[in-house]
Design goal:
The chain has 70 residues and is α+β, with helices and mostly antiparallel strands. The protein has one domain (2-63): Alpha-Beta Plaits (2-Layer Sandwich). Helices cover 31% and strands 30% of the residues. It has 2 helices and 3 strands; from the N terminus they run βαββα. A 3-stranded antiparallel sheet has the order 1-3-2. The protein is globular and about 30 Å long.
Length: 70
Amino acid sequence: MTETKKLNVPDMTCGHCESSVQEALTELDGVRDSKADHKEGTVEVTYETNRVTDEQFKEVIAEAGYTLRY
């Protein structure tokens, strides 16, 4: 099943931040698309629910240098 979820990543401050987070998320196997908005501090991610977990989102966002807030 595919789902779209909005993630809170409030420490993005520019377009480069958006690109970094989007790229990190789309490298996860099972993520179909991601769209970051640094002004809103959010990322919409479309993914396969049986292949990707919230913990994986948190890990790759942290590896990119940002923080996922719940």
